[in-house]
Amino acid sequence: MGFFVGRDVGTVDDRARATQQREPALVGPPEETILCCPVGDEPDLQPEISIVVPALNEQITIGEFVDWCKEGLRRVGVSGEVLIVDSSTDQTAVIALEHGARVLRTRKRGLGRAYIDAIPFIRGRFVIMGDCDLTYDFRELRPFVECLRAGFEFVMGSRFQGVIEPRAMPALHRYFGNPVTTLAFNLVHATKYSDIHCGMRGITLELLRRINLTSQGWEYASEMIAKAEALGAKSTNVPISFFKDREGRQSHVKRSGWLTPWRAGWRTLRIILTFRAERVLVPVAMISLVAGIALSALLGHGPVRIVPGMTWTLHALYFGVTLTICGVALLHFSILAAVINDRMNGVALRWVRRFPYTPSIALGFAAVVAGLAPAILLVVRYAAHGWYLTSQDVAISHLSTVGLGLIIVGVLHISFTLLLHSLLDRLYHL
User: Fold this and answer.
1) What is the largest CA-CA distance in the chain?
2) What is the pLDDT of residue 390?
3) Please, is 282 exposed, middle or buried when counting C-beta atoms within 10 Å of its C-beta (0-12, 13-18, 19+)?
4) Which is more confident, 259 or 376?
């Protein structure tokens, strides 16, 4: 078998200058990124579809997988290529080349990293991703191709809307992990996905580049969806078939250990919250703020008898002031999170108009001054009575507690304004 190989190449010209190498270069862990192309590959080819799939020691399935891909492209009547991103120590790369795939040999650095490494080498306008273990049916590419041609930028496969073969998905994943994390994602991101962990998905190359993946491992799947939504990408779901592992093949979950799904789930939740933290923080902030202000206003002038035998005093006021401070802090953090995660500048511009620098700083200082007045009055009375507060000073104690809360809120608001405008200047050069 012959093939061509080029080292660290990313342009068409570089690929055209690839040099002939010996087959043993494909066996064992690669020391650098190497692109290997089957004999007859056209360096300047620009297919409509690129099937891009990572592989790690998949010599049992890789040959048939590449054949499935070619059959799928043939059924739809679309020009395409198969690019295997390989970090194997077995014959995976050799077999993939024999069946006509291009192979990008990279170091083993995680599933997400494999896709990041592949982006400079993708030649197709549309990209279809997945696994090469024959669990996804790459003979059925028509739904993805039709949606991408129709203008959708991101097409998610859904195993739950399609067919799941018996014993193809562990019960823990099927009935707990996947539904729970998918529900959490939809609630936080206001989406309607049915299977956020499905590895088979289609995406335009332009959107894939704009997403700018950073996740190195399995969490890339959630990051991709979150960023696609943040960029306003036109997306949809399509049903797919999901098969059980072939006889003799051990899944990567079993290879990695039983803790792997739990780690992946935790990382997924981190991605869900990181990219839309404001949708979680704002409701909590508003509940805390409203309850805190109400308690502070009720008890700001002294104890209040709620019902016979129940009087709310200074301790209840402490709770109200704490709720107010927490509410303000969470609201500030949610705004900053929205600005940091903004991909289209609309959110950032909206918040800078709502919090113009000078009025916002002035509001913070006004809160500090308003809070200092009762606090100073309390200290004066405290000193005047020989460093002792009498029963007549209960009302001023309540008022000064509200004042201390105002000081903290004012300092928080000043800090928030400074950070907001620093972020806007750094990110958007406003």
Assistant:
1) 98
2) 67
3) middle
4) 376
Q: Which CATH class is domain 3-275?
A: alpha beta
Query: What gap in Å lies between CA 78 and CA 73, rounded to an integer?
Result: 6
Q: What are the pLDDT digits (tens) for 274-313?
A: 888 888 889 999 999 999 999 999 999 899 998 888 899 9
User: 235: how many CB neighbours lie within 10 A of its CB?
Assistant: 20
- Three-class secondary structure of residue 121 per DSSP: helix
Q: Where are the domains of the chain?
A: 3-275, 277-428
Cα three-residue angle 241-263-107, rounded to 5 degrees: 80
204 alpha carbon, distance to own chain's centre: 18
Q: How many residues does the chain have?
A: 430
Task: Give the Cα separation of 109 and 22 in Å (integer).
Answer: 25
The residue behind tokens 């040999």 is: 105
Query: Which 3 state secondary structure label does DSSP give 55?
Result: strand
4-8, 29-33, 198-202, 392-396, range with greatest mean pLDDT: 198-202
Going along 228-362, which residue ranges are E strands? 235-242, 304-307, 310-312
Task: Give 388-401 pLDDT, tens digit per residue.
Answer: 766 667 888 899 99
Q: Give yes or no for a contact between 264 and 186, defined as CB atoms under 8 angstroms apart.
A: no
The model's pTM: 0.75
The three-class DSSP label of residue 52 is strand
